[in-house]
Specification:
The complex is a heterodimer of chains A (309) and B (445).
Chain A: H1 5-23, E1 34-35, E2 42-44, E3 57-66, E4 69-78, E5 81-88, E6 100-104, E7 106-113, E8 119-125, E9 130-135, E10 141-145, E11 152-158, E12 164-170, E13 173-178, E14 189-192, E15 213-223, E16 229-239, E17 242-250, E18 257-258, E19 271-279, E20 282-289, E21 294-300, E22 304-305
Parallel strand pairs in A: 1-22
Antiparallel strand pairs in A: 2-21, 3-4, 4-5, 5-6, 7-8, 8-9, 9-10, 11-12, 12-13, 13-14, 15-16, 16-17, 17-18, 19-20, 20-21
Chain B: H1 4-14, H2 23-28, H3 32-36, H4 50-53, E1 65-79, E2 82-83, E3 89-102, E4 105-116, E5 132-133, E6 144-154, E7 158-181, E8 189-213, E9 216-223, E10 226-242, E11 250-269, E12 272-280, E13 284-293, E14 304-310, E15 332-345, E16 349-360, E17 373-374, E18 378-389, E19 400-416, E20 428-444
Parallel strand pairs in B: 5-17, 7-10
Antiparallel strand pairs in B: 1-2, 1-3, 1-20, 3-4, 4-6, 6-7, 7-8, 8-9, 9-12, 10-11, 11-14, 12-13, 13-15, 15-16, 16-18, 18-19, 19-20
Classes of the chains: A mainly beta (309), B mainly beta (445).
Chain lengths: 309, 445
């Protein structure tokens, strides 16, 4: 049927109705929608205190949530070598205080809290081997275990049963080893390989954005809104010359699935080492920026936090 | 006889296409007496609410009736304990019933109305991933206008009624034609036209009321499914050129075409079959309803976006968009119970109290996969009263009624545990409740 004066009148009515509908209702059922803190992230532009002194590079952050801010562990690189430092942020997560060295000749820190409340640290030492230890209340690090296999970007996470998981990157893939009753780390298993098993929202296979390499990782054991444990993995993926941050998750640490809308954050090709945190009612993501040699921050706001860790 | 012209007018209205449907009534009831009885009135409805519950009831009374009132339901529906701000449903309710005689039988024609006071209707298509209380966030936000006719088949024993309502699908295209300069926007010239169709959709309801003995009354009512679609799009036809601002532009592609179409189910109401049984004593009435609702036919409200691009030899293409995920709803059977009793009576005033209960298992599955069409098992409790005034003034020599009912609908907490650990929304818990009231003034004329 072609447009006629009658149809114009009906169209006008329809438009009025649609306009009434568009104007009606403050949210119409769209208020307080939950967010898991996956993305997409926005850059926080003004973070001057995350910039290190001249001649120093800050990199590879790892974040622990406090009630009033974030405890930020990171690598301090100078011409003399690398060390691991810790600094506390304010509630916004954007301002950090004085950095304190907790471990010399070490790099790539990752920190978590054990079932007994003790802080655990994974790092790479000066001879490029992964280490796992604890941090006492005075900030002293005590070595607990040294895995026999090689890897980078080690991360320690406890599941709800108290089993320590050591995640790390080896040959461009993410692997995990669960600490056994004897305190050792058995042969690791594959968690995530680059360029395979990428699916869209319908579960259909789709080309991987991280086809070439996974460079570094951050893993947390989250609690879903239904109080279910979920391993949350942010990682730096690479395809060609493009680097960006992606997300994957697992309920048991064995079967993993990538986020269908990866990458979740593309702050620039010099960006590495995402580290997720929660503070001030926001999801935060620290990362290192190779070009400025400093730490940077991304945030999700305003959102309703539905998943915590 | 004096009602003939009125009956004729109503008959014309009954057969005229109307933008109408009964969705708020599906969810929150229609008319204060029916709400107060928990909706268990398939055998009993004989006021304007019979337009929805059972049109056959319209011819079971001998009087003309005019009703006017107001109904409001305030939802408090939450995800993870936080209110999603689903809009309340408020509006004027009422109707008129004209009764007369033909061939020695009572016949009746009626209109029932729910007129929202915030909006007449609302169209929208949300992303599939966005959590929403799919049956409540938008569906009740619209005008309800039902028309029915009924006839007494066997005096005081068997009545038949039917309603026929027309609704309107909406389809439209914005047609754009001209030439597109891919090098300089100033060289692009387009003209546009709008072509809109409103195709009628028929919605049928029908019912029977059978009174085998004075104490027992049974009703059977059928309400057909309807599904309004919204089909809108844009079609661009033209040449792709370079140098459109120059005297001699070069044509890269002749008669290129781009068509983008969005189609979605804008409103769905399931096919329903309701059976009602009522036991009536002079001082009290007990009523039971069983309603089958064919929710398995529920279509995804997510828009299907199709794009077609023809650029001749230019190597351009648009990947297909994913189809909406099937919502996987299932049929439900809803039991309802209503009780009504006379509490007080004198020469001028009769007070009737009532209460009702119902239970509805949710037709929606737990949202464990990609969709987030949230619903939960619901239970309703309602109570109400009618004040019937007799012989009050000479102006109103016949009885008039004040009906009031309040209702509470609880939606049980429900866990939605996502199969995919990397789901964009993740696990959540839904639940909530509704609080509402309905009131009517009814006049026998």
């Amino acid at each position: 049927m072609k447009l006629s004066s009658l149809r114009v009148g009906q169209l006008g009515l329809s438009l009025i109705f649609a306009a009434c509908g568009a104007a009606g209702g403050p949210n119409g059922g769209g208020a307080n929608l939950p967010s898991r803190g996956i993305g997409p992230w926005d850059k926080v532009e003004e973070t001057p205190t995350l910039t290190p002194p001249t001649g120093t590079t800050w990199a590879n952050p790892s974040a622990l949530n406090r009630t009033d801010g974030v405890d930020l562990y990171f690598e301090v690189q100078t011409t003399a070598g690398s060390e691991i430092a810790m600094a506390q942020t304010d509630e916004s997560g954007e301002m950090i205080g004085q950095a304190t060295t907790i471990l010399a000749d070490a790099s790539q820190p990752a920190v978590t809290v054990g079932p007994d409340g003790k802080r655990w640290l994974a790092w790479v030492d000066a001879d490029a081997t992964m280490k796992v230890g604890t941090i006492d209340t005075d900030g002293q690090v005590e070595l607990v275990a040294s895995p026999t296999f090689a890897g980078t970007s080690p991360v320690v996470v406890f599941n709800r049963e108290g089993t320590l998981h050591l995640f790390f990157v080896q040959d461009g893939s993410v692997k995990v080893s669960r600490r056994n009753d004897e305190g050792g780390f058995p042969t690791p298993s594959l968690v995530l390989a680059p360029g395979v098993d990428c699916v869209d929202t319908k579960g259909e296979a789709t080309p991987c954005w991280d086809a070439d390499e996974i460079i570094d990782i951050d893993v947390r054991l989250g609690n879903t809104a239904a109080d279910r444990a979920v391993f949350r993995l942010f990682y730096t993926g690479k395809k060609g010359t493009v680097h960006a941050f992606g997300f994957a998750a697992s309920y048991n640490g064995r079967i993993w699935q990538r986020y269908a809308f990866n990458p979740v954050f593309s702050p620039g090709n010099g960006s590495r080492s995402p580290a997720a945190a929660i503070s001030g009612g926001r999801y935060l993501m620290y990362y290192s920026d190779k070009s400025s040699k400093s730490l940077k921050l991304g945030a999700l706001e305003p959102v309703v936090l539905s998943e915590t860790w | 006889m004096k009602y003939r012209s009125s009956l004729l007018g109503l008959a014309v209205l009954t057969l005229t296409p109307l933008t109408a449907h009964a969705n708020p009534a599906d969810y929150f009831g229609f008319g204060a007496r029916a709400v107060g009885m928990g909706g268990a009135v398939t055998a009993l409805a004989n006021d304007f609410s019979a337009n929805y519950y059972n049109p056959a009831g319209l011819s079971t009374r001998k009087d003309l009736e005019l009703s006017l009132g107001y109904a409001a339901v305030s939802p408090s529906l939450n995800i993870n304990g936080l209110d999603l701000g689903v809009d309340p449903v408020t509006g004027v309710e009422g109707g008129i019933i004209l009764r007369g005689n033909a061939w020695g039988r009572t016949i009746a024609l009626s209109i029932g109305l729910h007129l929202p006071n915030e909006r007449i209707t609302r169209l929208r298509a949300l992303p599939e991933l966005q959590p929403r209380f799919v049956l409540y966030d938008n569906h009740p936000q619209r005008l309800v206008l039902t028309t029915s006719a009924a006839i007494e088949l066997i005096p005081d024993t068997l009545h038949f009624g039917a309603g026929l309502t027309y609704l309107s699908d909406t389809s439209g295209r914005l047609n754009v034609a001209g030439q597109v300069d891919i090098g300089d926007a100033a060289g692009t010239t387009m003209i546009s036209a709008v072509d809109v169709n409103f195709d009628a959709v028929r919605y049928v309801s029908a019912g029977l009321v059978w009174t085998p003995v004075p104490e027992i009354r049974m009703g059977l009512s059928f309400r057909d499914e309807f599904d309004l679609s919204l089909d809108i799009g844009v079609v661009v036809n033209g040449d792709i050129i370079l140098g459109g601002t120059t005297p001699d532009p070069s044509v890269l592609v002749e008669d290129a075409r781009l068509e983008i179409v969005s189609q979605n189910s804008n409103l769905f109401s399931p096919r329903q079959l309701a059976f009602g049984f009522a036991w009536q004593e002079p001082a009290w009435t007990l009523s039971i309803d069983i309603t089958w609702m064919q929710w398995s036919q529920f279509k995804s409200p997510t828009a299907l976006l199709t794009t077609e691009l023809d650029t001749g030899d230019l190597p351009l293409s648009i990947p297909p968009n994913p189809k909406p995920t099937a919502p996987r709803f299932h049929d439900v059977i809803v039991p309802r119970l209503g009780l009504e009793g006379r509490l007080y009576q004198d020469k001028y005033l009769t007070l009737t109290g009532r209460c009702g209960f119902w239970w509805e298992k949710s037709p929606a599955p737990a949202q464990d996969f990609t969709t987030n069409f949230i619903d939960g098992d619901k239970y309703g409790a309602a109570a109400g009263f009618t004040l019937a005034f007799d012989n009050v003034t000479e102006v109103l020599p016949k009885t008039f009624y004040l009906d009031f009912a309040g209702q509470f609908i609880g939606m049980n907490s429900r866990y939605h545990l996502k199969v995919n650990p990397a789901d964009p929304i993740g696990d959540y818990i839904s639940g909530g409740h509704f609080v509402g009231f309905s009131t009517n003034l009814r006049f026998d004329l």
